[in-house]
Amino acid sequence: MATIRKTSTTEKRGEGRAHAPAGRVRTTRHPLRTRPLAYGLTAVLGAAMLGGCAQDSGGSSASADGKTTVSVGVFGVFGYKQAGLYDEYEKLHPNIRIKENAIERNENYYPALLNHLSAGSGLSDIQAVEVDNINEVAGLHADKFVDMAKAEGVDKSHWLSWKWSQAKAPGGQVVGLGTDIGPMGICYRKDLFEKAGLPSERDEVGKLWKGDWSKYVETGERYMKAAPGDTAFTDGAAGLYNGAVSSYPVKYYDADGKLVYKKSKGVRESWDLAMRAVEGKMTGKLKQFDKEWDQAYANGAFASVVCPPWMLGYIKEKAGEKAADKWDVAPAPKPGNWGGSFLTVPKGGKHEKEALKLAQWLTAPKQQARLFEKQASFPSAKAAYDLPEVKGAKHPYFGDAPIGDIFAEAAEGIPTIPLGPKDGVVKTTISDIGILQVEQQGKSPEEGWNAAVKKIDDVVEN
Predict the structure, then answer these.
(1) Are residues 213 and 255 in the same domain?
(2) Mean pLDDT score of the chain, rounded to an integer?
């Protein structure tokens, strides 16, 4: 049994991974410092820092002391350094020195990665890739990366099948090993639920919407009839949309790689639920990760939010100790994923063999479990779910919610969703243009949808 205390984490509206403030993870064995990923995994490498360099004579050469420096390019806070995993690996391999090249935001990191791939130089020995970019990397650049499906020592069965499939190229190559994932739950304010006449005990709360996102909206309608003060049921319609659409087997692309979001059942039904929430005045009209969203946590302005594991620390930080006995976590209506990344090894690097060994070690179940314990980064390695750092993990701030069990069950139920090269662009545009125009500007649902479609058509090839 592990008891986990966390702070914020990782992904930024499908654009990558963001910072997570420092927090604590406590187990029954010992307290630990933690710094979860935030907002799926947003950020880290700029053009100047991408290199280490796998295909460059720069930072990967053996030094005067005989050690080989293996460079790791990441965006945002992956937590390997913070959790002490680099130090441990160096102790196990005295001839290896690890250098992390980190850039804060994925929107800076990823274009630089593509530039270095095109140039054939400046790459780190290991390069992280965010989930919204992995399909494009696999589809267009698979020949530039080591095929993990054929790499010695890689055991496909360690990973959830849907996570493994996300990094698979059309030719069958697997370009990266999965790191974290973002199985979703619902974080809710027990005190506000009680004041609105709703159940507040997590098992009963989970039953309110089990199996159907429309039941979550129905719960919101019940809440608003007796909402305490000026509170809203949920933070914003985009969070609801993201949670719902991620539970469908098809979102924006079909299995053949065709952009199908305009006809997607998942998109249509999730959009309609978001619009229903807006029209029912049950949202706080907040854009996630803006200052107003942060302040709303502190003020107790909404009663529930769709939340992956990495968001628990964010809520704890923004809501503060005054709300420590008020938040809890229940399962989401259906399993869905928000966030995650991969470690890739570019071909032709001077230390390709050493990089492959390090990438395998960092993504092995044992290391993934430790990263969850210390950093709130939920494992994509299903074998980690039976390890003590994950199995039975609880979060004191959220009423000792059994987050290990809640998120592990969700993770194993997440559908294998076809990804496309511009998944992130489509998702962000629907949320930040389409939904927000309706929610914050008073546009009609049709106007909001048309605005999103126009923008997507302008930037994405159909």
Answers:
(1) yes
(2) 88
